[in-house]
């Protein structure tokens, strides 16, 4: 069960913080250019943060008590593979889900 | 003001295809939040206040894993750092608006509204400030309110979905699907690989700090690769 104090701290903090990030330049900085090194790093936040979050969930899933699970590894590989080839987010999700369900029947 | 009205509808049409992404993701968030024990009000408030899909999924997952709230906050804000980049990129087009319109636009500045507005503004530099604002509001209409609506639908559905449905893996699959098309250049691939390796090697760190450190390492690796490739 999620602690309600933690939940509201995160919801309100994240809401305010995200708004500040969105308002930062539009509202405060105006059209002064950003230093190149900063934009260069900001460009990679999404592609660095998301794999960092996902990799442990794939390799050590909480649902299996942290045991590496071949079905989940295969589903992850299928999702990434289809995503890379098709560049289609929805198709990749559906393929990964299908692999997870099929793998669960065949191996589980 | 007939022209601004037509700009609104142009924006609406530009934003409409994103409904295909918003609907399933919003529903999924509603389902997962309900599974995590949030009630309708808490789930909907989450989407209205934060209005950022990836960060919402991340913080929900970490809250469930009982990670301390401040670490959850730091990680989710790190996921949203890209919003600052959108803000910077859109400022040359909308920076001249009155403050309340800039604040309103900032609230609705998400991946999809940014993508369609930035594309349109670059193709039509001749548009007036008023027309650009109308376009932005038009783009937001089929993206942001549906995000709330589908969160709510998901929350209703979530009460009907059995808890043991492999849903624990919905978030990794959704993220992996989003990462793949984002790997546009070699530098992006390097950033993702370093972050992946880093997070697995740093998993021993307390409070999920390994995730933040690995992401920082990945960003530095991506930025450095880009700098060297440009030389």
Give the SSE layout:
The complex is a heterodimer of chains A (108) and B (231).
Chain A: H1 4-29, H2 36-42, H3 45-59, H4 70-86, H5 89-107
Helix pairs in contact in A: 4-5
Chain B: H1 2-15, H2 19-35, H3 40-50, H4 53-64, H5 69-79, H6 82-94, H7 99-107, H8 111-123, H9 129-140, H10 144-158, H11 170-182, H12 186-201, H13 209-230
Oligomer type:
heterodimer
Give start-end ranges of low-pLDDT stretches of chain A. none
Structural class of chain A: mainly alpha
Fraction of residues in helix of chain A: over 70%
Q: Short summary of the structure?
A:
The complex is a heterodimer of chains A (108) and B (231). Chain A has 108 residues and is mostly helical.
What does this structure look like?
The complex is a heterodimer of chains A (108) and B (231). Helix content of chain A is 78%, strand content 0%. The mean pLDDT of chain A is 88. Chain A has a domain at 51-107. Chain A contains five helices and no strands. Chain A starts with a helix and ends with a helix. Chain A is extended, with a radius of gyration of 19 Å. Chain B is built from 13 helices and no strands. Chain B has helices at 2-15, 19-35, 40-50, 53-64, 69-79, 82-94, 99-107, 111-123, 129-140, 144-158, 170-182, 186-201, 209-230. In chain B, α1 (2-15) runs parallel beside α9 (129-140). The mean pLDDT of chain B is 89.
Task: Output the keywords.
heterodimer, A: 108 residues, mainly alpha, 78% helix, B: 231 residues, 2 domains, 13 helices, 77% helix
């Amino acid at each position: 069960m999620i602690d309600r104090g933690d939940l509201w701290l995160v919801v309100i903090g994240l809401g305010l913080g995200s708004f500040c990030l969105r308002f930062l330049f539009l509202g405060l900085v105006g059209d002064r250019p950003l230093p190149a090194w900063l934009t260069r790093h900001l460009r990679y936040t999404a592609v660095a943060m998301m794999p960092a979050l996902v990799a442990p969930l794939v390799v050590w899933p909480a649902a299996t008590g942290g045991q590496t699970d071949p079905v989940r590894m295969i589903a992850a590989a299928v999702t990434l593979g289809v995503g890379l080839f098709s560049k289609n987010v929805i198709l990749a999700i559906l393929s990964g889900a299908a692999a997870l369900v099929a793998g669960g029947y065949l191996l589980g | 003001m007939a022209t601004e009205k037509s700009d609104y509808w142009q924006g609406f049409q530009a934003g409409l295809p994103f409904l295909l992404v918003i609907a399933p993701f919003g529903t999924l968030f509603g389902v997962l939040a309900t599974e995590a024990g949030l009630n309708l009000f808490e789930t909907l408030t989450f989407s209205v206040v934060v209005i950022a899909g990836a960060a919402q999924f991340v913080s929900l997952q970490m809250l469930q894993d009982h990670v301390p709230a401040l670490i959850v906050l730091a990680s989710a804000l790190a996921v949203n750092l890209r919003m600052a980049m959108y803000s910077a990129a859109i400022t040359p087009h909308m920076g001249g608006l009155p403050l309340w319109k800039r604040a309103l636009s900032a609230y609705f500045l998400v991946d999809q509204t940014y993508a369609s507005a930035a594309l349109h503004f670059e193709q039509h530099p001749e548009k007036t400030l008023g027309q650009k604002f109308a376009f932005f509001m038009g783009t937001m209409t089929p993206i942001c309110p549906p995000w709330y609506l589908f969160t709510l639908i998901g929350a209703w559905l979530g009460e009907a979905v059995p808890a043991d449905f492999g849903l624990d893996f919905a978030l990794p699959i959704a993220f992996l699907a989003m990462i793949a098309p984002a790997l546009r250049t070699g530098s992006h691939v390097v950033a993702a690989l370093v972050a992946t390796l880093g997070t697995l090697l740093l998993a021993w760190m307390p409070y999920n700090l390994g995730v933040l450190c690995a992401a920082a390492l990945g960003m530095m690796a991506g930025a450095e690769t880009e700098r060297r490739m440009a030389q």
